[in-house]
Structures are given as C-alpha cells and as structure tokens.
Amino acid sequence: MSATTLLWLITGALMLQPLSTDLYLASLPHLAIYFEVTPAAIQQTLSLFVIGFGTAQLISGPLSDRFGRRPVMLAGLAVYVAGSLACAAAPVLPALLSARFVQAIGCCTAVVVARAIIRDAFDMAEGARFIARAYSLLSITPLLGPIAGGYLQIAFGWRAAFFAHALFGVALAAASLRWLEESNHERNPEATRIAELRRSYAGVACTPAFWAYTLPGSLSFASIFVFISGSSFVLIRVLGVPTEYYGYCFAFGVLGYLAGTLICRRLLARIGIERTLGVGTSISLGAGMAFAGLAIVGAHHWTVVLGSQFLTMLGHGINFPCAQSGAVAPFPRQAGAAAGLLGFSIMMAALLAGTWVGFSHDGTLYPLAFTSAAVGASVFASARALARYRAVASA
Asked: Which domains does the chain have, with CATH numbers?
C-alpha cells in the first residue's frame, strides 16, 4: 500500500467524526422545533454520540490489537452505515438518540483503528507530521460540511444529513475493502480478555507520558466542541444569522483549523513536538480570554463569535496532531488500547463541555464566551504540566 493511498484512507476514516457532527449542525435549532423539545434535549444528539464514541473505543482498540486493523475497520464502517440510516428514519427523538449512539460506535471504531495504523507505520515525530497532513486534508469536511448541511436542511429537511453520512460510509467501506492492507503484524490473541484488558489499560493509564499529551489533546478538542455544540444556537437564535448562512460562519472558523495544521507541520520540523504544543495551547488560551473579555464589554456581534472560533480552531489545529502522536507513541504493542483510551478521554472532555453549553444556554452570548475562556485556560495549564513533567524526567 503506497503512502498516498494510506494517507487518503486514514483521512477518510478520521473524517467520519467531523462529518457526523458538523453536517447537521445547522439542523439543531430546527430539530428542537420538529420534536417540540428544548435546545438542551436536542444537545443530547451530540452528547449520546460523544458517549458512544468515547466508550466504544475502549473495546474497538483492543479488538484491532487482537484481530487486526483491517477487519475491525470494515466492521466499524458497516455499523456506521446502519446507524446513519437508522438516524435518517427516526420517527421520534428517543429513536434518533439511540441511532446516534449506534452510529457513534461505528464511527469511533474506524477512527481508533486509523490512529493505531499510524502508530504501526510511523514513529512519534513522523506520526505527528502524517496526522497533520491528514487533518489538513480532512479539514474540507468541517469547512464545507456545515455549508452543505445548511442547504440540505433548507432543501430536504434534517433527515438528509444522515443519508449523506450513510453514503460516505458506504464509499469509505468500498475503498477500504479494495485498498486497505493489514498493518498489525504482532497481533495479541490475549488482547480482548478481561485480565489482559485490565493490564493493558492499567499500563497505559499509569504511564505519565500518556497523560502528558492526552490531557492537552482532550481539552483542546473540548475547546472546539464548545463551538460545535453551541455556536448554531447563539448565531441563529441569539444573533439572528440566517440558517443558510450558518455554514459559512462555521467554515470561517474551520479555516483557522486548516491554518493550524499547516503551521503545525512547519513547527514540528523546526522546534519539535513539545514546543509546538506550547505554541498551540498559548493560542487556545488567548482565544478564550479574548472572547470572554469582548462579551463582558458588550461586543455581542456575530463577528466576535467567528473571530474567537477561528483562533480556537487555529490552536486546536496545532495541538491535536502533537497530542495524538505523543500519547500513543510509547505503546508499540498496545497501540489499539492506547488509542482507545486516548479517544475515550477526548470524548469525555467533549461530552462535559457540550453538556454544559447546552444546559447553560440562556439566550445570551455569555455562557458560550465564559465556557470558551475556561476551557482555553485549562488547555494552557495542562500543557504547562507537560513541560514540568519533561523537566523533572530529564533531571
């Protein structure tokens, strides 16, 4: 399998996650009207997805350690397609929530296997650069996804986004069946036994180097999930942005993410992974604090939200490749388990952030701004902990 083929397959697998969340963002306010529920109730379509995505990784990672990356990837894509079709056909909100959970299981399986494949093929520095390249390519999804989702909502209603999910899953499954080759050549037949799972996860969880990268990576993802879960309500309902324009607003923020991944690739080659992460987390802190400060002085305008989202995603584009590669690098024989625990931590941080944004929404800009500031400060603080850990370890 050529490096180019691997890059596109990995990009497609990683693309499932933003596609599954971003494509229907413009539909969230309309879902609340359709099902006659509150915004907090509709936020559960994101929360249940996050829960399913996070918890299933604890199983799908070890499954790929035991049975191989390719068969687990294909099984995950089949589950994803089935869950997407169930979402599109859901007659009531509880059915949609259940289907989103199933969809998340399939999605997370593909993503965690993709992360493990990267660990199989590259060392830490090369893996970070490869991930940055992949995220530069897949940024087209959060860039165009909300725009397409807005027009799909206007033209066909909210179900169209989930049909689009299913079509993408089918295309990726066909490509994987044709081109994806097995990368796990040291399969562990004990990987899915309870005792082995306990040992694997205990070994990963007790490694300080794992958390040194996982914490800033998880909190960085939470920083953008604040906008993913809350910006549509604030922009459409509070600030009056038309539904069909929301996608363009979100796409502007994603340009920051694309720029961040490109900057990350250059910084990695020049200053290394740890200092690159320091740059990204400093941007995360500045973005959150600026948003809160502008909200306090009364600058309640859609451009403030867009600017803050742009800078937050810029920081995340630098942070995330570093965190993903650094967290999994110490575990060559437990790459699936490490990737699974990393993904679980990322999703739990996103769940907490998204749930809080939904429940704190009060029809103003303040909850979104203050939450963004708090998470940005946490990202920065966790990266400083990484710097202290490295200083102690080298002493």
From this structure: 3-394 (1.20.1250.20)
